[in-house]
Inverse folding.
């Protein structure tokens, strides 16, 4: 009897073991199928020094992750390869590094496409497909090569939130997914996987370190937008209709603009010239609907029963050339129009967004270094730039640009010389006019300096303070100043190109 009990107990344990090992083997096979398609990326990055724009900062080595997708391409983050002078790719369990080439970059979406031209590199790699956005609380797996080791790391978490977020790389405001999995340096560009499909690309950890084990990823809709944009190898980016709005939560504000209590929408506060909305929308219009998305008072639209996000998403998912249907109220009368999606204007703010893979513009005149004000300059003050950069430069970010005033010019520093006596300690000074004429943008300013025929160049800021330079002395001392401070040229390459 005891022997019979032991026999059947053994059979039962064997059956349990078999039933448990089958899913484990399936899970292991799934991991193996994915891990061979996850690539480690090595880069050497040398960004320009916007304080001395004729120089590069010290080159630094960094690494990231990527995933193989159709077309012998590797999908990764733009910030992994931004300002990179040398890029290599390494396969899982392969010690060799292969030269990689960047074929497309969307800095706004923080996505880039690479390829490796070494014959046979992709022959044993399976391309991963792009899946759909997971549902909230669904489990996801994050693959990548975080710092602290050379082997592939796999972490798990759940999708906790989906909404518009400011992407840390270039400051764009796009849809992002939040997961409660550890995101560390080196994970950037790695795929977020569900059912052997890419449902996101890891891009950043929680800003400021205020919460642990929180990270963000680029969702499938943004990935597909970039992949479609890349088909002609020309970056169109995300369209911008050229208007800005504020929420309309106040019942009094609703009534003031002719809305009923149960009407919802957002108030137009600015329409930019030369934009798709120019002449078709007006300030104080109330936008109630974009395509088939109803806009709530707080500016959100409903993507699903579980997901609300900013109405900007409805515009972002269009491509240049698409029609965007806008339903709005003007003085209580509802109207509908089609706006043609066009590429965003260069500047909506007087402070242009951060740029990558470009040389900075500058003009060294009379020993005074003039540059256009942009986020590259502001961020040169370091990670704490929002508190350490000059207040005058930071506050300019809140000013709209216009055709008459597209860009600000800053006298960044003075290289001491006889021609600029009296101004040696002037720094970070926004120039408002030159010889009494307002400045439209940096290139116009540089042309005026170059073509000046007056004896003196008088530069004035908005508070009336003046910097006066003798033009003849400035031109005569240019070569001496360049040699003294080892500056290769007085102007950035191509500044005066037609």
């Amino acid at each position: 009897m005891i022997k019979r009990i032991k026999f059947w107990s053994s059979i039962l344990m064997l059956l349990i073991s078999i039933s448990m090992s089958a899913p484990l083997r399936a899970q292991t096979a799934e991991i193996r199928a994915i891990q061979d398609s996850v690539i480690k990326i090595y880069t050497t990055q040398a960004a320009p020094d916007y304080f001395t724009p004729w120089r590069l900062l010290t080159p630094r080595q960094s690494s990231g992750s990527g995933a193989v997708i159709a077309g012998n391409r590797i999908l990764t983050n733009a910030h992994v390869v931004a300002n990179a002078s040398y890029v290599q790719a390494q396969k899982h369990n392969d010690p060799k590094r292969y030269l990689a080439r960047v074929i497309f970059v969307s800095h706004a979406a923080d996505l880039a496409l690479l390829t490796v031209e070494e014959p046979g590199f992709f022959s044993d790699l399976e391309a991963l497909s792009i899946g759909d956005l997971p549902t909230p609380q669904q489990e996801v797996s994050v693959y990548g090569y975080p710092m602290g080791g050379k082997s592939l790391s796999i972490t798990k978490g759940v999708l906790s939130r989906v909404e518009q977020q400011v992407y840390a790389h270039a400051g764009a405001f796009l849809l992002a997914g939040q997961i409660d999995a550890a995101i560390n340096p080196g994970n950037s560009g790695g795929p977020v996987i569900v059912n052997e499909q890419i449902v996101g690309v890891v891009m950043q950890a929680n800003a400021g370190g205020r919460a642990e084990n929180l990270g963000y990823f680029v969702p499938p809709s943004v990935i597909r937008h970039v992949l479609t944009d890349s088909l002609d190898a020309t970056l169109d980016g995300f369209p911008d209709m050229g208007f800005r709005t504020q929420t309309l939560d106040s019942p009094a504000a609703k009534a003031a603009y002719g809305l009923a209590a149960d009407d919802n929408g957002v108030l137009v506060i600015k329409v930019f010239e030369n934009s798709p909305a120019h002449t078709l929308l007006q300030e104080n219009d109330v936008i109630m609907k974009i395509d088939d998305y109803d806009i709530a008072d707080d500016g959100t639209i409903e993507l699903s029963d579980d997901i609300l996000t900013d109405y900007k998403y409805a515009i972002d998912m269009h491509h240049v050339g698409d029609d965007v249907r806008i339903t709005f109220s003007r003085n209580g009368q509802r109207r509908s129009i089609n706006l043609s999606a066009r590429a965003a204007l260069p500047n909506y703010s007087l402070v242009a967004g951060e740029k990558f893979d470009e040389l900075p513009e500058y003009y060294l005149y009379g020993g005074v270094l003039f540059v256009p004000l942009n986020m590259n300059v502001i961020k040169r003050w370091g990670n704490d730039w929002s508190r350490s950069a000059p207040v005058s430069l930071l506050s300019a970010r809140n000013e709209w640009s216009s055709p008459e005033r597209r860009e600000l010019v800053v006298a960044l520093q003075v290289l001491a010389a006889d021609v600029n006596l009296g101004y040696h300690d002037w720094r970070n000074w926004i120039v408002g006019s030159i010889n009494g004429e307002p400045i439209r943008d940096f290139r116009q300013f540089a042309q005026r300096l170059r073509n000046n025929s007056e004896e003196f160049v008088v530069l004035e800021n908005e508070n009336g303070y003046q910097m006066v330079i003798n033009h003849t002395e400035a031109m005569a001392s240019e070569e001496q100043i360049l040699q003294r401070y080892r500056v290769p040229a007085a102007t950035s390459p191509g500044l005066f190109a037609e």
